[in-house]
Specification:
The chain has 128 residues and is mainly beta. The protein has one helix spanning 107-113; strands at residues 3-7, 10-13, 18-25, 32-39, 46-52, 58-60, 68-73, 78-83, 92-100, 117-118, 122-127. 5% of the residues lie in helices and 50% in strands. A hairpin with a 4-residue loop joins strand 7 (68-73) and strand 8.
């Protein structure tokens, strides 16, 4: 059974940092695509950052480029999202999503369409 468990959310002041973690089980970080999405109240879900083993690609939404960094730990089967210089508009529930197998999408497509498996989310609140 695939499980994705997010952690690391919380309340932070604008300009601060948080690191989100997504612990994955039920598959290994071999052929995989995994990433972070967010949804703020009243807004559509947004692909924030994704990584794919298909071509080694990464994707960042324009709104987070230069501030967020995605990374993965193959040994721990965990993906991280380091978020720096946080802004109030980054406030949202952040979800981890993943897929695996020989036909995983490249990172841009993964973040655009979402993937098959989802975590329950972790809330990030940035105060002004």
């Amino acid at each position: 059974e695939v499980q994705l468990v997010e952690s690391g959310g919380g309340l932070v002041q604008a300009g601060g940092s948080l690191r989100l973690s997504c612990a994955a089980s039920g598959f290994t970080f071999d052929d995989y695509a995994i990433g972070w999405f967010r949804q703020a109240p009243g807004k559509e879900r947004e692909g924030v950052s994704c990584i794919s083993s298909r071509d080694g690609s990464t994707y960042y939404a324009d709104s987070v480029k230069g501030r967020f960094t995605i990374s993965s730990d193959k040994v721990k089967n965990t993906v991280y999202l380091q978020m720096n210089s946080l802004k109030p508009e980054d406030t949202a529930v952040y979800y981890c999503s993943a897929d695996w197998g020989p036909h995983v999408p490249p990172a841009t497509m993964a973040c655009y369409y979402g993937m098959d498996y989802w975590g329950k989310g972790t809330l990030v609140t940035v105060s002004s």
